[in-house]
Amino acid sequence: MNAIKQNIQNVKERILSDAQNCGRSPKEIQLLAVSKTRSVKLITEAIQAGQYAFGENYVQEGIEKIHYFSKNRMGNIKPQWHFIGPLQSNKTRSVAEYFDWCHTVDRFKLAERLSAQRPSNLPDLNVLIQVNISKEKTKSGVMLSELFDLASLISPLPKLKLCGLMAIPALIKDYHQQLVVFEEMHSAFLELKKEYPEWDILSLGMTNDMTAAIHAGSTLVRIGEGIFSHFEGKMNETS
Ligand SMILES: *Cc1c(COP(=O)(O)O)cnc(C)c1O
């Protein structure tokens, strides 16, 4: 078994045990492999290991990979591409034309542009609203106090499917503190689900805070290091 395949298996086992530890079904939790800065060779290995959903942070890098995998087909497999980086309004067209998902919509202008620029022959673009849960001045994301208004503006837009929420909390090492922040997101998610019962995605958790995110109700974890980090000369650890 190659190393990427082994890592993916380890991450899936962690999802399984984290879910079981809090009485959730592991089927409720999707794994997004965050492939930013990783080569197409490593992504190919991940696809061969059965991982089809990938997250990219940089529009241009993402598009190059999307082109690569549409030219170099692997059987019938069509990888799914999630844009998870900060989005500037002059880049919305590329996201609308190439990606399947956008996790980082935090203002109406972005949503309006994505909606208008999504090609009519493509299915609706799946979008999440990014929340600035740690209230960091320099970070993207809408404040919780403005979330309801933003959702009601975005929800009716054509060619977009609003599926839920996403957040990247400030870096915290302590598990219990991680949990407090994620639970705040989960409450907001449940509150909004009363209005939008079709919402099914709460995108929370990365390699270092995945356990707390799953305990707090995440339905999609975004994992980069845990899948790819021991490669490309970054380090030689065995684990
Ligand atoms: C890089 C990144 C991740 C993955 O983080 P890891 O710590 O590598 O698992 C997840 N989400 C976003 C938005 C990222 O930019």
Which short descriptors sum up this protein?
PLP-binding_barrel, 239 residues, alpha/beta, disordered C terminus, TIM Barrel, binds pyridoxal-5'-phosphate, 42% helix, PyrdxlP_homeostasis, eight-stranded parallel sheet
How would you concisely characterize the structure shown here?
This is Pyridoxal phosphate homeostasis protein. The protein has 9 helices and 8 strands.
Q: Strand percentage, roughly? A: 15-25%
Q: Judging from the principal axes of the Cα atoms, what is the shape? A: globular
N-to-C span: 15 Å
Q: What's the number of extended β-strand segments?
A: 8
CATH domain fold name: TIM Barrel
CATH-scheme architecture: Alpha-Beta Barrel
How is the largest sheet built, in terms of strand order? 7-6-5-4-3-2-1-8
Total of helices? 9
Structural class: alpha/beta
What is the CATH level 1 assignment? Alpha Beta
Annotated CATH homologous superfamily? Alanine racemase
Bound molecules: pyridoxal-5'-phosphate
What count of structural domains?
A: 1
Mean pLDDT: 94
Rounded radius of gyration (Å): 17 Å
